[in-house]
Amino acid sequence: MAGRCGDQGCLRERHWVVEGCFGAFSYTRQVNAFDRSVRAAVFEHLVAGWPGPTPGDIAERTGHPTEAVAESFQRLAAEHRLVLTPEGDRVMMAHPFSGVPTDYRSEIGDRRWWANCGWDAFAILALLGDGEVRARSEEGIESTWTIRNGVVRPDGLVHFVVPARRFWDDIGFT
User: Fold this and answer.
1) Which CATH number applies to 33-93?
2) pTM of the model
């Protein structure tokens, strides 16, 4: 739950602490218009089916200077709004999309998107429409779920190895 003045946080101070099943996060600033435009361009890039963008890709898309986009990437990553590759030169995750190949894929017709996990693969289809989720386990077992009119078939269970409150300890592994 979000804090109120006098306990966990204060909106007037632009500082909120959110606690719950995902652990505690502290948000100390509102995203400025420039960073919002960069993040929106990242999502447009990923929805179009391209791999994780570089600052140059987003600069080309938006007309913003590459250096300013790179600085925006760093700010957005520091606040868990994006995840960059270990080299810091490309977007690896903009939840629910993955900018790099994974074992989880969402498909609508001939369009495909990589997802960070099974949960994110379903989230992509919740955003974009009915289709299929495909996953491959570490043992190489392939699974497919079909979503039509918001209904998932077949039924199944999902097992999360990492508790949700620990996801950001190592979001790449989670």
Assistant:
1) 1.10.10.10
2) 0.77
